[in-house]
Design a protein that fits this description.
heterotrimer; A mainly alpha; B mainly alpha; C mainly alpha; B: mainly alpha; rod-shaped; C: mainly alpha; two-stranded antiparallel ribbon; 7 helices; about 5% strand; globular
């Protein structure tokens, strides 16, 4: 462990990658929402308008967790508090 | 990036993607203000006047529709009235015809009656005239007969009989004439 | 490869530094263009005819569609807020479009999206208090007063998830576009990015605009009714 800063940055990138992994489950969930919506649309084509808007809202809700993962990844990459703490400690 | 900004770039802090500090809060405030200003501009210059314009137009069109509907109803009622009046006229026509027929028939009957009456009168008059004529003729005939018989009797008396017989014969004849006159 | 929010200016007012960021400047540009469009429409409105045609038709179609949309998904109570929702829609969508023209979309900055979501947050609670009064405030203490912190955090989560949804989507598109531009050779930077811009800026922008608007309207309606 020659360079602690490099270690912190590497760990932060790994954390970002892990946080992005929740996109898998989010996508699965969204796929389920979309497939169910399409099934209902096929069963009741006359209600497709309301089903479509409900589907969009459901997709948006399901996307929330994926967005949180993305947020964590972004914080890890661009606003990592650990890096600034380390730099402060080095300076101090 | 223009010259001015390039000059300042030494002074300004480096950019970032995401951060949670006072500057973000200030940015949020500025953006909120921007969006509110934009909302006022778009809302009062674009959205409301167009909406108002459309509302006015739809009001006008619905007003025109109402007008048309009103006129339609008016026309409908007028039509009904005329139809009713037409039906009334039909009835009236029938009534008038009926009354005319009645009057005509009455009149004709009157005329016929009158004619018949007149005919009867004429006939009666004629009959009366005929009777009177007959009476007159009878009277004349009687007078003539009297004259003739008295003439004949005179001649006969001159030739054959005396005064006594003459008187008796005269009486007899007179009595016979009297009788005949009564009988006729 | 640069998708940072650059600071273009630093003002100092009463000892507090204020960074004028790329986001703010781009917002001003978009505001100017939209205001010009609005004034153009306002001037054109005087010559609008009874029977719509061409440009007038487009403007009327947009306004009418939007009006019906607010009426259908928001109900009558939210009709006075139509101006605000209209602005939100137009602003988010035009900032997504601005990515096509090389501007950094203002919505790829959390400050912008949180400003919008914060306005929604204020509207949710003010409409709730306005239309349901104490009944609405009582809702925070149900089913039991112990649940108050939970309800409170749940309410706070609404603007945060709203803002991060929009921010994350636009930023992801921006990052992918920047990566594409910086990684591929110059030959591939002709033509192909049009498709990517079409997807990330126009399609995703439209969907995210719709979702942000619909969720805002639904939250506010949920509080008001």
């Amino acid at each position: 462990m020659q360079d602690p800063l490099a270690f912190i940055i590497a760990i932060a990138h790994i954390a970002a990658a892990l946080a992005s992994l929740n996109g898998i489950l989010t996508t699965l969930g969204q796929g389920k929402v979309a497939s169910t919506a399409i099934e209902s649309m096929a069963r009741q084509p006359e209600a497709s308008d309301s089903i479509r808007s409900a589907m969009f809202i459901g997709l948006a809700m399901g996307e929330t967790s994926g967005i949180y993962g993305l947020l964590i990844a972004i914080i890890m990459l661009f606003a990592n508090p650990l890096v600034s703490i380390y730099i402060q400690q080095m300076a101090g | 990036m223009n010259f001015e900004i390039a000059l300042l770039s030494a002074l300004v802090p480096e950019g970032r993607v995401f951060g949670l500090d006072l500057q973000t809060l200030i940015s949020i405030g500025i953006m909120l203000f921007n969006v509110l200003v934009l909302s006022a501009v778009l809302g009062f210059i674009l959205y409301e006047p167009v909406k108002e314009f459309m509302a006015k137009r739809s009001d006008r069109i619905s007003g025109q529709l109402d007008d048309a509907r009103e006129k339609m109803a008016e026309a409908e009622s007028l039509k009904a009235e005329y139809e009713k009046r037409l039906a009334e006229i039909d009835v009236e026509r029938i009534k008038i015809l009926e009354s005319a027929r009645k009057t005509a028939s009455e009149r004709s009957r009157n005329i016929v009656d009158e004619a018949r009456h007149e005919a009867a009168t004429i006939r009666r008059h004629t009959q009366e005239g005929v009777i009177a004529e007959r009476e007159r003729l009878k009277e004349e005939t009687r007078l003539y007969i009297i004259e003739l018989s008295s003439l004949m009797a005179g001649k006969f008396v001159e030739h054959s009989i005396d005064a006594e017989t003459q008187d008796r014969l005269f009486d007899e004849t007179m009595a016979q004439l009297e009788e005949a006159r009564w009988l006729s | 490869m640069d998708f940072n929010i650059d600071n273009l200016w630093v003002l100092e007012i009463a000892g507090v530094e204020i960074w004028i960021t790329r986001t703010i400047v781009n917002t001003w540009i978009i505001m100017l263009l939209l205001s010009a469009l609005a004034i153009f429409v306002r001037i054109k409105l005087k010559s609008f005819k009874e029977i719509p045609k061409g440009f007038q038709n487009a403007v009327e179609a947009v306004v009418e569609t939007f009006d019906n949309f607010v009426k259908n998904s928001g109900g009558e109570k939210l009709m006075p807020l139509g101006k605000w929702f209209f602005t939100v829609f137009v602003f988010i969508f035009s900032s997504s479009i601005s990515g096509v023209f090389g501007l950094r979309p203002p919505t790829a900055d959390w400050a912008t999206t949180f400003a919008l979501a914060f306005a929604t947050f204020i509207l949710i609670h003010s409409m709730g208090v306005k239309y349901r009064k104490t009944e609405y405030l009582k809702g925070f203490f149900e089913p039991h007063p112990i649940f108050f912190p939970l309800n409170f955090i749940g309410e706070l989560a609404t603007p945060i998830s709203l803002s991060f949804r929009l921010f994350g989507n636009v930023l992801a598109g921006l990052i992918l576009m920047t990566l594409y531009y910086s990684l591929v050779p110059l030959v591939l930077q002709l033509g192909i990015p049009a498709v990517l811009h079409g997807y990330f800026d126009l399609l995703m922008g439209a969907i995210q605009t719709y979702i942000f608007g619909v969720l805002s309207i639904m939250f506010i309606r949920g509080a008001a009714e």
